[in-house]
Design brief:
This protein has a single domain, classed as Glutaredoxin (3-Layer(aba) Sandwich), CATH 3.40.30. It is built from 6 helices and 8 strands. The strands form 2 sheets. A 6-stranded mixed β-sheet has the order 1-8-7-4-5-6. A two-stranded antiparallel ribbon has the order 2-3. Pfam families: SCO1-SenC. One of its GO terms (molecular function) is metal ion binding.
Length: 216
C-alpha cells in the first residue's frame, strides 16, 4: 500500500470520527429553550422559584421524608393514587420513559429523582404507594401523608386536591376524579421551579426537562 493511500485512509477515518463525535454531542447536549418556548411545550417556569414550608410524609417501612429529600436534586413530583384508572399511569409512564431516555443518552441521574405523593391517604398505605411508584422505576419514591399534611403541601404547590365527604364509604373514589394532573419540578435548593401541564407530549417533555435542569 502506497504512502498516499495510507494518508488518505487515515484522513477518512479521522473525518468519520469527527462526524460521529458531532452527532453524539448533538444527541447529548440539550437545546436551551426560551420562556415562550417552554410555555408552548407545556412547562410554566416561575419568574422566581417559590419557597414552601417543611413537611413530613412516609414511604416504605414508615421512613419519614421531609424537605431535605430535595437537597441537591432536581425532583419531579406527581400527586396521584394507586387505584387511578388512567391519568396517573400515563403521567408516571411519561416520567419512566424520560429516565430511560436520559440513561440511554448517558446523562447523570444521581441529581435527579421522582416522587409520587398519594392523594388518597385514606386507602393508600406508605408501602403500597411506594411499591406502585417503583413498578415504573426502582429509583422512584412513593409516599403518603395524613390528610392535613397532604392539603398543606397541595395548597402551597398549587395542586387541586378534593377532600373526601365526611360520610365517605370505604373505596369511595368520586372525590379523587378531578385531581390536578400537573407534574411539578422542584430545584436542588428545594424550591418550586415550575410545572408541566397536560396534555403531555413525550418528545416535548424530554426536550423541555433537559433544557431546564442542565446548567448553562
Amino acid at each position: 500500500m502506497s504512502k498516499n493511500i495510507k494518508i488518505s485512509l487515515v484522513l477518512i477515518i479521522l473525518f468519520m470520527l469527527a462526524v460521529l463525535s458531532l452527532f453524539i454531542n448533538k444527541l447529548t447536549t440539550p437545546r436551551y429553550l426560551s420562556a415562550p418556548e417552554l410555555l408552548v411545550n407545556g412547562f410554566y417556569q416561575f419568574p422566581s422559584p417559590k419557597e414552601f414550608s417543611n413537611f413530613q410524609i412516609l414511604t416504605s417501612n414508615d421512613i419519614v421524608l421531609d424537605k431535605d429529600i430535595f437537597k441537591g436534586k432536581w425532583t419531579l413530583i406527581y400527586f396521584g393514587y394507586t387505584r387511578c384508572p388512567a391519568e396517573c399511569p400515563v403521567a408516571m409512564s411519561l416520567i419512566k420513559n424520560l429516565y430511560s431516555t436520559l440513561e440511554l443518552k448517558g446523562f447523570n441521574l444521581d441529581d435527579k429523582q421522582a416522587l409520587l405523593v398519594t392523594i388518597d391517604p385514606e386507602n393508600d398505605t406508605p408501602n403500597n404507594v411506594d411499591q406502585y411508584a417503583k413498578a415504573f422505576n426502582e429509583s422512584f419514591i412513593g409516599a403518603r401523608g395524613d390528610r392535613p399534611m397532604l392539603l398543606s403541601m397541595a395548597t402551597q404547590l398549587n395542586v387541586m386536591v378534593v377532600e373526601p365527604p365526611k360520610n365517605m364509604q370505604h373505596n369511595h373514589m368520586e372525590h379523587l376524579e378531578n385531581h390536578s394532573n400537573n407534574i411539578l419540578l422542584i430545584n436542588p435548593d428545594g424550591q418550586y421551579a415550575g410545572f408541566f401541564r397536560p396534555p403531555f407530549d413525550e418528545e416535548k417533555f424530554l426536550l423541555t426537562y433537559q433544557s431546564v435542569v442542565t446548567p448553562r
